[in-house]
Amino acid sequence: MVQFSVLFNGLAKNILVKNGKKSRSDVGREAANALAKEARKNDLMLSSSGTVNGERSDNFVPVFSKGGKKGVNQDCLVVWEEFGCQEDMIFCGIFDGHGPWGHLVAKRVRKLTPSSLLCNWQETLALNSLNLNSSTELDKSLNRFNIWKQSYLKTYLEQHPGIDSFHSGTTALTIVRQGDLIVIANIGDSRAVLATTSDNGCLVPL
């Protein structure tokens, strides 16, 4: 695993110097937001229909959303290649709004989730860095999964109070692929299907 902390801490120190004294979590959020802005600038982040195919990547990610006939399309998506400046990581999220203001809720959650998750992942990774030196591969995989699980829980618990979801809301389905680890998290009725292509070109769920 590539250590992200050196880059992240350097970026955080630069933000701290520019903006004066801030709390550690504020600095982390600003650093994560700066990484998101840089990813958009380098065409590594997509938040509408299209494709993402990074220059240094073997990944090809097509995305498409078709609005229904009920009114405003409330589907939002985001794909972030090289998530957090990690070449082996990708973040994908689909948010399906519901209710009269669902499209606004979905857009807000789409905007906040990736950088908030990235910041929480980095904080959790730093707190659990000793556990990553486990002896077996199974222990290492479980530790990586638990770090993502803690990061997701913290991210969504932080966002929940800031969104008035009495009349409107959104589902959230997000996927992080880090090397050979795939972490899928969902809230609501959206689901992911892991599939492969058969010999005749059809998708087959695993």
TrEMBL record:
<dbReference type="Pfam" id="PF00481">
    <property type="entry name" value="PP2C"/>
</dbReference>
<protein>
    <recommendedName>
        <fullName>PPM-type phosphatase domain-containing protein</fullName>
    </recommendedName>
</protein>
<feature type="domain" description="PPM-type phosphatase">
    <location>
        <begin position="60"/>
        <end position="206"/>
    </location>
</feature>
<dbReference type="InterPro" id="IPR001932">
    <property type="entry name" value="PPM-type_phosphatase-like_dom"/>
</dbReference>
<dbReference type="GO" id="GO:0004722">
    <property type="term" value="F:protein serine/threonine phosphatase activity"/>
</dbReference>
<dbReference type="InterPro" id="IPR036457">
    <property type="entry name" value="PPM-type-like_dom_sf"/>
</dbReference>
<dbReference type="InterPro" id="IPR015655">
    <property type="entry name" value="PP2C"/>
</dbReference>
